[in-house]
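Student: Send me a single protein entry containing the residue sequence and its fold in C-alpha cell form, directly below this note:

Tutor:
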Amino acid sequence: MSQIPEPRRVGNADIIHHEGFDDSIVSPFVPAIRTVSNARLVFISGVTGAPVYHDHPHVPEVFDSMPTDAAGQVRNAFEHLDQALIAAGCRRHDVVNMIRFFTDVEADQDVVNAHQAEWFGGHIPTSTTVQVTRLATDRRLRFEFHVVAAAPA
C-alpha cells in the first residue's frame, strides 16, 4: 500500500493527494485542494483570448483583433487571468480550481497545458476539462477558463 503524502500548504490552501499518488506522473491537476479557514473565495468569470470588456449583445468586429491560434489565445487568456487575480488581491498560487472548456480538446489541450504549466510555475490547481460545441462570446474562441482562487483574508 502506498504512503499518502501529508497535505502541502501553498498560499491559502492545502494541496491534497490520496492513495496511489506518484510524483513521477506529469499531471495538470491535483485531486483536491482545501482552503484554509481565513481564506476568501474569489470566483473569476470565464477567461478567454477575447477582450475582457465588450458589448452585449456581442459586436463581432470587436473580436477581430484577437488571435485565432491556440498559442495566441492562451497567452491572452492567462494575461486576463493575471489581471483579475491581481485586482482581487490574489496571486497565481492562490488558484484552487479551473474548469476548462475547449471547442477542440485534441487540437488545443497540449498547447494550453504547456502554457498553463509555465504560467503557474509549479503550482497545480484542481481542474476539470470538457469539450463544448462552441463558446458564447465568439465562434472563433477555442477555449474558456472558469477559475476559483483563495484570497488572503
Observations:
- Strands lie at 8-10, 13-16, 32-35, 40-47, 95-102, 126-131, 143-151.
- Residues 70-87 form the longest helix (18 residues).
- The two ends are 38 Å apart (CA to CA).
